[in-house]
Amino acid sequence: MYNIIYAEGGICLSEGFYADGISAGLKAENAKDMAFIYSELECEIASIFTTNKMYAAPIKHFYAKGDFKTNFVLINSKNANAMTGKAGLDDIGEILSNVKNVVNPLMSSTGVIGVRLPKEKIINGIKLFDFSKKNSSEAAKAIMTTDTFSKEISFKVKLENEKSFNIGAIAKGAGMINPAMATMLCFITTDAKVSKDEMQELLYEVTKTTFNAISVDGDTSTNDTVMLLANAKSGAYEREAFKEALFKVMHFLALEMVRDGEGATKLVTYKVTGAKNNAEAEVVAKALSDSLLVKTALFGEDPNWGRIASTVGASGAESYEEKLKICFDNLCVYDKGQFYFDKEMEDKCAIVMSHKKFTISCDLGIAKGEFKSYGCDLGYEYVKINADYRT
Amino acid sequence: MYNIIYAEGGICLSEGFYADGISAGLKAENAKDMAFIYSELECEIASIFTTNKMYAAPIKHFYAKGDFKTNFVLINSKNANAMTGKAGLDDIGEILSNVKNVVNPLMSSTGVIGVRLPKEKIINGIKLFDFSKKNSSEAAKAIMTTDTFSKEISFKVKLENEKSFNIGAIAKGAGMINPAMATMLCFITTDAKVSKDEMQELLYEVTKTTFNAISVDGDTSTNDTVMLLANAKSGAYEREAFKEALFKVMHFLALEMVRDGEGATKLVTYKVTGAKNNAEAEVVAKALSDSLLVKTALFGEDPNWGRIASTVGASGAESYEEKLKICFDNLCVYDKGQFYFDKEMEDKCAIVMSHKKFTISCDLGIAKGEFKSYGCDLGYEYVKINADYRT
Questions:
Q1: What is the mean pLDDT of chain A?
Q2: Which residues of chain B are within 8 Å of residue A306 when distances are taken between CB atoms?
Q3: A263: phi > 0 → left, psi -120 to 50 → alpha, else beta; which?
Q4: pLDDT score, position B308
Q5: What is the DSSP string of B318-356?
Q6: Considering its fold, how many domains does chain B have in total?
């Protein structure tokens, strides 16, 4: 048995980790725009990067290093250092050579694509770093781009043997499948004594049902990164406890990202059951959370179950009109060929849809496959943010 | 040799075809909402229907008939007769039993999903049909839903042997990959003496580069239909001439649909070249025309070439930062690692993007694969139309 208890501290709750956010003048008005994560001890690293073939310079820099440990990550917002070729990679080398007394320093960037990093500003910013700071929430703020709130979470995990370890994370963005140049970044720290292979395995597994189950607009950025740093300082570890804590961290942050989806006003869970298998359920759940028609119906608070049915049918997964069941929370509007959608039901459903959080369930009625995805609505604000991003 | 000459008449240019649109009270304010297409002679049929597994009752009705000829199609707007089960199919049978002196009558519907057809209104509407009318443009108006203009086109094809045939079409909607419940429908008539097998083969082939190369919002409706009716009345036919005329008809209407995409203000051609093969070029071209980020950048008239590069990279097709070239019309902004994107170029590109029609070219620099897709921008008006569709 183990207990997972919420505790403040973010990435600095984990013993031996330090972090802060500073202003290097990349953003306007002295907003925080550079963060660091530093560990007293060298860390094992697990990571998942974007599948975008135009992956950015920081990811190239990481891939070029092979197998290694690190104790330092520098993160900047406002500039993605993507499509910058060899020059972008050289910039990273030069910048990181200014960070003293660290092992295999890493960099991560988010912002506009196709512009060289403002190297001088960043190098000057490094001078403001204080490795004794435990300001996780300032680091969380510094990595924001179009985010409207910063995102962090941390838990203490108490094991049966009186030992305990900590896990914490900061994140930004609004989807691994994500919006604008608002790349999804997530940095997780832990003092658990977990092996590199095991944490990489768990990171992949947990990502499937968390960051890979959310959608804001179906795009995949050049810079998407999830990085897990483990310094083993607690000496404690237990696989199931760690996995559950990791899920809690990533699930919380994934939902925070959707909630903060550009212009989003609603967080909707798409619960698909009864599919031929889990993979087909995932196809349907993601088709629903990705669909522009569904997203705009959510924004209009229009219980347009026909669009849900049409999106299920268009997903490519096995589905049948005469087996399908659709519910808004616990209100069933269509069940195996029968409508339950009179004016009274439409009004009731519209009330459900006026809430900030609700669930749309689709039971395909075929077999036992299931998957949950998470999405948001899409309204005028999304268009505004994305039509105006560069200006 | 042959000549393809634009001629007025729409679907009624083809000899022996009649059509009209009437108001049956499905739409408000006596707007036209029901159309017929009638042929003196029975027609061979070629058709392509939606891939949506929740395909609507009219499509089930068609599939149930097996191999047959027809001389009559009834089309209604405002109600899709989709997700209506056996009752929806029975409604079609009852409605069509009221059309006298026709062979294997067909029905096609577009509008809201999940509502039974207003049978009485439609049956009363049938009484208003006059099979001697040649009002193609009224039929084109009657099948509109969120369309802002009606769509028709026709050509006379003169063959070397002094013979000639005609081809014409009406269409509605804004994409085979289409918006809202605004299903894409297209009805093509011809008096060419073409065999069923050959016209089905040509219809598939031409659809690939026309209706299947356009995108408004990436959704596939329950009712999408392209139907080609050939009554052979001219006695004339020549494969290459017919194919080219069919392409001209479908290409024109496909671009009309994008131009009328919900809220669209721009028609953009995505020209992808240098891909590993044509299939990969198609993947990239469609990723670009489907991308919300690209569409909103178009709306903002923001020459954000980084989003173009990122979307190419995210498409899954083989692509390399150091081989890619991106141009707005003839302005090259990125070429194999070099930016040409100073303030002057940005201003020039913004002028290109302020036009109603322009081309974004991506040369992947790998091999000779190429494909052209067509898309539009996405702005506030799209959200407005789709958030409010049912109300």
A1: 92
A2: 80, 82-83, 112-114, 181
A3: left
A4: 93
A5: ---TTT-EEEETTEEEEETTEE---HHHHHHHHHHHTSS
A6: 2
Taking the complete model, does pTM exceed 0.95, yes or no? no
What residues of B are in contact with residue A297 (Cβ under 8 Å)?
Answer: 386-387, 389
In which domain, by residue range, is B357 found?
267-387
pLDDT at residue A180, as a whole number = 43
DSSP A41-110: EEEEEEEEE---TT--HHHHHHHHT-S--EEEEEEE-SB---S-HHHHHHHHHHHHTTS-S-SS-EEEEB
DSSP state of A348: H
φ, ψ for residue A209, nearest 5 deg:
-100, 5
Residues of A in contact with B318 (CB under 8 A): 53
Tokens of B203: 């219809």
Point out the residue among A51, A321, A341 whose CB comes nearest to the CB of B85: A321
pLDDT level of residue A339 (50, 70, 90 thresholds): confident
Tell me if A344 sits within 8 A of B85, measured CB to CB. Answer: no
The secondary structure of residue A12, as a DSSP letter, is G
Q: What residues 116-145 of chain B have any CB closer than 8 A to a CB of chain A?
A: none
Do B359 and B248 sit in the same domain of this protein? Answer: no
Residue A347 pLDDT > 50: yes
As a whole number, the mean pLDDT across chain B is 92
Beta carbons of B300 and A222 less than 8 Å apart: no
Chain A residues within an 8 Å CB radius of B317: 53
Residue B82 and residue B215 in one domain: yes
What is the residue whose two structure tokens read 């030992």?
A163
> Is there a single domain that holds both residue B206 and residue B157?
yes
Question: What ipTM was estimated for this complex?
Answer: 0.85
Best to test chain A binding among B59, B216, B296, B390 (most A CBs inside 10 Å): B296
Domain end call among A259, A276, A295: A259
Best mutation target among A266, A386, A390 (most B Cβ atoms within 10 Å) is A386
